[in-house]
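Tutorial, part two.
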Amino acid sequence: MVKKEISEIKRQFTPSACSISRICGCYVDGEKNKKTRFKEAFLSLPEEDMFKYFEILRKALSGTVGKNLVTLDFPLETEKEGGTQEFLLQLRNSRLQDDELLESFYDRIIDAYEYAGNYLILLIHDAYDIPGRTSDGLDMEDASDEVYNYILCCICPVDLSKPGLSYNETQNIFQNRTRDWVVGMPELGFLFPAFHDRSADIHSALYYSRNANDLHDAFIELLLGCPLPLAADFQKETFHTIIEETLGEACDYDTVKTIHENLSEMLEEHKDAPEPLMLDKYQVKSLLENSGVEEEQLESFDKNFDEAAGERASIFAGNIVNPRAFEVKTPDVIIKVNPERTDLVETREIDGRQYLVIAVDGGVEVNGIVVASHS
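Running the prediction step on this input gives:
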């Protein structure tokens, strides 16, 4: 799913646009016991409750596409009878009216989700009447071609509120505040089916993780049965490993600087595209070729990529380069350079020792103090 499609679904979580038919929940304690369950017609809830749920639901569709929000494709075997996708399809089609399916769903989450504290499993069913669109992008509310039936699941931590003093207006005194259990914003969530090209795609789901560097691989594998995506920090480490092992002794400052500049340029050219820039094995290889890496150094590239990332893996370019930052680091020194002035830094060998040489334009400050230059 792309950002525009995700935003279209998020816009439905308002009182005026809401078409959520049902909301269900199961409260689980730290020992994996189901403490309570609830089922409600969403539109019958008090407005104050609706707004709280809207906030949680929007949060499960928030973050950076390719980092916090990842589209997962279901393998064919999951769509057979008894598969994870087939089960989710049954749950979606039941419109959350089947108690047995709901209990099975809660059990699957409890088995798959490793969490030390209490949490709430929140699940909604919605039927979004997709408005038609004119050629210039305007919605035509009376020209719907499809109803998008979907479920959205959020897993939210439930923690005790902080201790403190509160004012008792009746007795006109300050006293110890009563602590209660508060539902937090979701740690994990998923939307099924995905909303691709403004239509339901039952072969994929949109997955959310609050922590982009911990996607909860076991949860994805057990509950959804989808191939595990690479977490944001792991993608960066993997890319670095591929570069270092492929270039070997040729992995010098100038080559790495050129790779950074080319990647930044690719991101800039792609910034208005609806989908994030993803690099597969062949695109990474092309990047290295365009950055001046010699053909003989690329002989081991395919093997290095397959071992580090996987033959069919794709890497989100936004996870491996920050166009607004350029850093040179040694064990004792860190130098941050304006990405537009990387030409000011170069490496030199003097008397058999490697040095970083920085051209100084416009004076030097040390701890905020302007120091004099000496020839």
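The radius of gyration is 26 Å. In part three we will examine how such features are distributed along the chain.
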